[in-house]
Amino acid sequence: MLITVPCPCTLDQALLDIGRFTALPDCDAFGDHRCHYTQGAQHCVLSATSVWTGAGQTCCYDWDGWLMFSDDFEYNDQYLRFYSAGVPYR
User: Where is the secretion signal located (predicted)?
Assistant: First the structure.
């Protein structure tokens, strides 16, 4: 059975849900905030659990704090699939 956690509706909810989501290194409002792959986003979070393909679910938020984009990136096998939250460098 496929169990996925839906993206939090607002950025405030995503920041408080530290057990299920962590900041995406390439789009972090408190660090690297360029958001090169998600233009227009202020902050993106990555799910701590993966979907059936092994990829992580990504949720991105606009400058007003609302959910603007969510995807599991199953088509991109290099960008997020091997990201480990416990390892600072790839």
Answer: none
The C-alpha atoms of residue 15 and residue 22 are separated, in whole angstroms, by 8
For residue 16, give every residue at least 6 positions away whose Cβ sits within 8 Å of its Cβ, in sequence order, or none. Answer: none
Q: pTM to 2 decimals?
A: 0.69
Q: Which are the contacts of 60, defined by CB distance < 8 A and separation ≥ 6?
A: 24, 27, 35, 38, 41, 43, 44, 67, 68, 69, 70
| Each residue's pLDDT expressed in tens, for the chain with a length of 90 residues | 455 678 899 999 999 998 899 888 888 888 777 787 777 889 999 888 876 777 778 889 988 999 986 554 444 444 444 455 554 544
Domain boundaries of the chain, sorted by first residue: 11-71
Q: CA angle at residue 51 from 45 to 55, to 5 degrees?
A: 65
